[in-house]
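Field log, afternoon session.

UNIT: design team B
ACTIVITY: writing a sequence onto a fixed backbone
BACKBONE:
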């Protein structure tokens, strides 16, 4: 088991500990649970889905990288496929606060990048901040997304975001997690291709500046992240954050990154290059390249 889970694991109910121990055994556990695993955990514990998600939250919060605040937020995004995706907040020392990933964004980006088509619910250990409520309002689940918080009755995003501003106000009909393909041809090595594939899936209706980042690790693993824009612009999740989030959720640390690749258009109105390089340098990665889409 990855050491970050040890303390949270030891506080789980005994039946849940026994049932989930084999899943956590791999130090690079993917931080997601298939529908089959969820159903086995339910039979082992007798918990319904909502109660099981609450019981698992300490494990999601253990995925947080809150090196500045030491305030660990955990979220579990529950996909319509039945797969559950953990998320934890990420803070990057040496970068800016704007680079932070909230736990809700972490879980949602995780689900999206793993191919989930829509979310049914999200369970979080703290009340979602305004930025996260706005981020969630970009999703194709709309205001119907169920939000479960400890000690509260289940609500929907509509309850937490009354009088909402969103994609519709800007005449945008393609939503976050809708299938998208910007169609840029693949080129180059595996890392470059992964970055282009990530860019092709990016949600970028506002700037029309697709981008993706792929990170190669010392053991050869590649994690890639797609850019996820937001109608209110600031809650946007940059492509590097998507990739770093997957890397961290899989139990890797930043020094494992050997090479980074950003894919974007040279003539795009918004450019990721400088922010991507700045954040990666703060994490100790100097080997950064860019492939131009087109
Ligand atoms: O809804 C919220 C509110 C805050 N945080 C994180 C962001 C930052 O890392 C830390 C302190 O705000 O908690 C979340 O992940 N989700
Ligand atoms: Zn938030």
């Amino acid at each position: 088991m990855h050491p970050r889970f040890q303390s949270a694991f030891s506080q789980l109910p005994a039946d849940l500990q026994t049932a989930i121990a084999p899943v956590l055994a791999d130090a690079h556990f993917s931080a997601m649970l298939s529908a089959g695993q969820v159903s086995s955990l339910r039979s082992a514990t007798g918990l319904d889905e909502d109660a099981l998600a609450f019981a698992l939250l300490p494990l999601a919060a253990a995925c947080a990288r809150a090196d500045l605040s030491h305030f660990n937020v955990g979220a579990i995004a529950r996909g319509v496929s039945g797969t559950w995706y953990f998320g934890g907040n990420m803070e990057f020392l040496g970068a800016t606060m704007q680079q932070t990933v909230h736990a809700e964004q972490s879980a949602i980006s995780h689900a999206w990048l793993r191919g989930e088509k829509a979310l049914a619910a999200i369970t979080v250990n703290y009340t979602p901040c305004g930025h996260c409520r706005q981020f969630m309002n970009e999703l194709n689940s709309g205001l119907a997304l169920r939000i479960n918080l400890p000690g509260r009755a289940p609500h929907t995003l509509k309850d937490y975001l009354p009088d909402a501003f969103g994609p519709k106000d800007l005449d945008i009909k393609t939503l976050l997690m809708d299938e998208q393909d910007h169609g840029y041809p693949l080129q180059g090595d595996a890392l470059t291709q992964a970055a282009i594939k990530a860019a092709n899936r990016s949600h970028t209706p506002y700037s029309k500046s697709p981008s993706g980042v792929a990170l190669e690790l010392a053991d050869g693993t590649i994690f890639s992240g797609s850019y996820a824009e937001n109608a209110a612009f600031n809650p946007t999740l940059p492509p590097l954050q998507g990739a770093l989030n997957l890397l961290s959720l899989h139990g890797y640390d930043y020094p494992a990154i050997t090479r980074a690749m950003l894919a974007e258009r040279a003539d795009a109105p918004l450019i990721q290059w400088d922010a991507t390089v700045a954040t990666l340098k703060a994490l100790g990665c100097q080997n950064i390249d860019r492939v131009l889409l087109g």
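LOG NOTE: The first strand starts at residue 32 and ends at 33.
NEXT ACTIVITY: expression trials, pending approval
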